[in-house]
């Protein structure tokens, strides 16, 4: 089975661990993660790719599970030295092990390699797959497409708005700089086109999944793939599971509601992206309306508390994809 997942950082990493575990003992499977690069940036002369690294560390089992980002067992000596020199962002702390990844990536890029090849070389260090399931991480694009946030006080990089301001300054718009001239990274369109199932992880629908879909060609590939497209809500009972996606959704006029996000993606039968959608049990009442809109919907517990709960969610998504025609 070939499964392609569009994913952001923390939520995407937990979901991908569930995908890997769900497919581990079955037939040989290929999992391709198309990862958001809108959070990427240059900092202290290094190219930082937060979502790619968060997912790679989690799949490799070397992530800091308590913080949800970075490497386990980190020390901060280099960041402390940089702060003493007034270099970088003191509120965006990078551990020494994490900096090793960023230095390696920057060296690969300076050698003329594209981000996708740099990512392949970085992830080759760890066995990301397990059992019968192999995993490949692909950046959505090799081009520099960074998400900026427009606020009343001006425009700033998404990471500054998210990490330093904690999304407290109301976002008026999100701008993906350089997106018009960007292209999908090698293998991205093929992974979507040739998949048996395409899954939209419960990642931020605006700045993670939305940024991926904004790369020219990717939205069309998802809309036209022969594979069923199944999404998983990252909102339960009107509240985001993790992060501050509600601040992002309000900026684009979408309610913080699982059904509203499904309608934002839209049914493929009406020119949208979704064949199926998973909601939490507390939002089960929305299923009938979504079904009437052409989005097949199932309700089940969606909190990824551990590997078992993540596997159950993935199996439900794969089951919905396989349960007859999902194309409206």
Question: How do the strands and helices of this protein lay out in sequence?
Answer:
Blueprint: E1 2-7, H1 10-23, E2 29-35, E3 41-43, E4 46-48, H2 50-60, H3 77-84, H4 96-110, H5 115-123, E5 133-139, E6 146-151, E7 154-157, H6 158-164, E8 173-177, H7 188-193, E9 197-200, H8 209-214, H9 218-224, E10 229-232, E11 235-236, E12 239-240, H10 245-251, H11 258-265, E13 276-279, H12 287-293, E14 296-299, H13 307-322
Parallel strand pairs: 1-2, 1-9, 2-5, 9-10, 10-13, 13-14
Antiparallel strand pairs: 3-4, 6-7, 6-8, 11-12
What does this protein structure show overall?
- By secondary structure, the chain is of the alpha/beta class.
- The chain has one domain: Rossmann fold.
- Helix content is about 35%, strand content about 20%.
- The chain has a seven-stranded parallel sheet, with helices on both faces.
- Strand 11 and strand 12 (about 240) form a beta hairpin.
- The longest helix is centred in the last third of the chain and has 16 residues, at about 305-320.
- The two termini are about 25 Å apart.
- About 50% of the residues are buried.
Short note summarizing the structure:
By secondary structure, this protein is α/β, with parallel strands linked by helices. It contains 13 helices and 14 strands. The chain is 37% helix and 19% strand.
Q: What quaternary form is this? A: single chain
Q: Roughly what is the average pLDDT, rounded to an integer?
A: 95
Order of helices and strands: EHEEEHHHHEEEHEHEHHEEEHHEHEH
Number of helical regions = 13
How far the N terminus sits from the C terminus, by CA atoms, comes to 23 Å
Question: Strand fraction band?
Answer: 15-25%
CATH homologous superfamily assignment: CofD-like domains
Structural Rg: 19 Å
CATH topology description: Rossmann fold
Strand order of the largest sheet: 5-2-1-9-10-13-14
Helix/strand-derived category reads: alpha/beta
Which runs of at least 5 residues are low in confidence (pLDDT < 50)? Answer: none
Categorize the overall geometry: globular
Number of strands: 14
């Amino acid at each position: 089975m070939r499964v392609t997942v569009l994913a952001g950082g923390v939520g995407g990493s937990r979901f991908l661990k569930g995908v890997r575990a769900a497919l581990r003992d079955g037939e040989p499977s290929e999992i391709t993660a198309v990862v958001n690069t809108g959070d990427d940036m240059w900092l202290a002369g290094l190219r930082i790719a937060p979502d790619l690294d968060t997912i790679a560390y989690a799949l490799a089992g070397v992530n800091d599970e308590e913080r949800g980002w970075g490497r386990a067992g980190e020390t901060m000596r280099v960041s402390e030295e940089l702060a003493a020199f007034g270099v970088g962002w003191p509120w965006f702390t990078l551990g020494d092990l994490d900096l090793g990844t960023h230095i390696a990536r920057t060296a690969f890029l300076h050698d003329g390699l594209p981000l996708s090849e740099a990512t392949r070389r970085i992830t080759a260090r760890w066995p990301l797959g397990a059992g019968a399931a192999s995993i490949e991480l692909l950046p959505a694009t090799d081009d520099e497409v960074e998400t900026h946030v427009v606020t009343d006080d001006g425009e700033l990089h998404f990471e500054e708005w998210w990490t330093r301001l904690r999304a407290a300054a109301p976002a008026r718009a999100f701008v993906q700089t350089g997106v018009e001239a960007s292209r999908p990274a090698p293998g991205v369109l093929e992974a979507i086109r040739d998949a048996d199932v395409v899954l939209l992880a419960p990642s931020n629908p605006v700045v993670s999944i939305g940024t991926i879909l904004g790369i020219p060609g990717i939205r069309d590939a998802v809309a036209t793939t022969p594979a069923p497209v199944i999404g998983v809500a990252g909102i339960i009972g009107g509240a985001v599971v993790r992060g501050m996606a509600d601040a992002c959704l309000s900026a684009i006029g979408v309610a913080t509601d699982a059904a509203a996000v499904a309608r934002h993606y839209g049914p493929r039968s009406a020119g949208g992206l979704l064949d199926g959608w998973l909601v939490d049990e507390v939002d089960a009442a929305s299923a009938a309306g979504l079904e009437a809109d052409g989005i097949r919907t199932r309700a089940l517990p969606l909190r990824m508390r551990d590997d078992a709960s993540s596997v159950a969610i993935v199996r439900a998504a794969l089951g919905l994809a396989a349960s007859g025609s999902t194309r409206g």
